[in-house]
Amino acid sequence: MIETRQTQRLHADESGIAEAARLLRAGKLVALPTETVYGLAADATDGKAVASIYAAKERPSFNPLISHLPDVASARREGLFDAPALALAKAFWPGPLTLIVPVSQACTVSDLARAGLRTVALRVPSHPVAHAVLAAAGRPIAAPSANRSGRVSPTLPEHVLVDLDGRIDAVLDAGPTAIGVESSIVACLGGAPKLLRPGGVPRAALEAAIGRELVSADRAGGAAPISPGLLASHYAPEAAVRLDAEAPRPGEAWLGFGPEPDGHALPSLSFNLSPSGNLAEAAANLFAALRRLDEAGATTIAVAPVPMQGLGEAINNRLGRAAAPR
Ligand code: TXA
Ligand code: MG
Asked: What distance in Å separates the CA atoms of residue 119 and residue 28, rounded to the nearest whole number?
């Protein structure tokens, strides 16, 4: 049984931000804007509040959550940072990067938010509204993406409401998110840093900051998935997805990138992620486009190839999962 709640729409002004922080301190659920996607936030130190995130999302409870902090100093109180972790924090916080580090002795993040692990996922977002709420809340705030489990992440408050209206206490509306794909996740656990999820900070920039190559999660080996939320079909739309398509086939919806294919009439269900081939624009449009084509009733979405450089790695990762068998 999912608990029903009256979902308030808060504006991202001074009073909305104060109300969001008050609700969080009271153990309530608030969808917050970040520069990547909207997060479903709760007090990370309060196991009961964290449990209600899993319930609202219908998320398998073995999946650990990211704890959000207003600044590097407060993040460093929760985890142990080795040299690469410090270099990455210095280079990219505040910003679209999550670091997995061992818990500190003083860590206040609840066991449930960490899914019982001795490591903790920490992120200092750069969105000014997120920063203001985190500073006012004065404690780590757990926030997975504010979608129902298995759906694509929300980049608009309207997406949050489609998935979670009546299940959460409030959504803080700051319009569309700028980056549109989730944070890059890097595990810094003493050995070689591992890129667990490509995201808003391109791999090359991360590698430049630590002066070495990042090991990829898929090449990192190990039996159990180190990041359980990275299961293949995590970001599935209802429609089937056909990747690296040269052009749409009859009956398919089309998700383009760059110039449209010559000599093909585009179907009525068609959207171009970036006609000029700009990867940042494509990332910002990706999840809204998948939702739109899905909601319009597409049965198969054919997707144009997207180059692997820069944010292309994160875009291709999310598209690959959207296309995974389920
Ligand atoms: O951009 C983002 O990262 C957004 C915004 C809201 O901050 N959040 C987000 O959270 O994408 P979520 O829960 O959808 O994805 C977090 C990922 C999951 O795949 C989870 O398995 C992994 O982080 N994770 C969390 N803690 C971990 C840990 N201790 N070790 C390994 N993976 C962890
Ligand atoms: Mg998610």
From this structure: 25
- Host H or E run for residue 76: helix 72-78
Amino acid at 283: A
For residues 169 and 162, give the distance between their C-alpha atoms in angstroms, rounded to a whole number: 14
Do the strands 253-256 and 300-303 form a parallel or antiparallel pair, or are they unpaired? Answer: parallel
- Ligand 1: residue whose CA is nearest its atom 17: 229
- pLDDT, position 223: 38
Spans of the chain below 50 pLDDT: 219-225
User: Whose structure tokens read 């630590």?
Assistant: 210
**In the prediction, which pLDDT does 221 show?**
43
Name all residues whose Cβ lies below 6 A of ligand 1: 34, 36-37, 39, 63-66, 98, 100, 114, 117, 119-121, 123, 143-145, 182-183, 185, 196, 226-230
Read off the pTM. Answer: 0.93
* Residue ranges with strand state E in the chain: 8-11, 30-32, 39-43, 66-68, 97-102, 119-123, 141-142, 170-173, 184-187, 194-197, 215-216, 240-242, 253-256, 270-272, 300-303
Phi-psi region of 178 (alpha: psi -120 to 50; beta: other; left: phi over 0): alpha
- Ligand closest to CA 150: 2
| Closest C-alpha residue for ligand 1 atom 19 | 229
Show Cβ contacts of residue 99 under 8 Å, excluding neighbours closer than 6 positions. 75, 79, 81, 85, 88, 89, 121, 122, 123, 185, 186, 187, 188
pLDDT of residue 235: 63
* Nearest CA residue ID for atom 32, ligand 1: 227
Q: Residue 3: its pLDDT value, please?
A: 81
186 pairs with which residues across the strands?
Answer: 99, 195
The predicted pLDDT at position 232 comes to: 56
CB atoms within 10 A of CB 312: 18
Tens digit of each residue's pLDDT (9 = 90 or more) over 85-120? 999 999 999 999 999 999 999 999 999 999 999 999
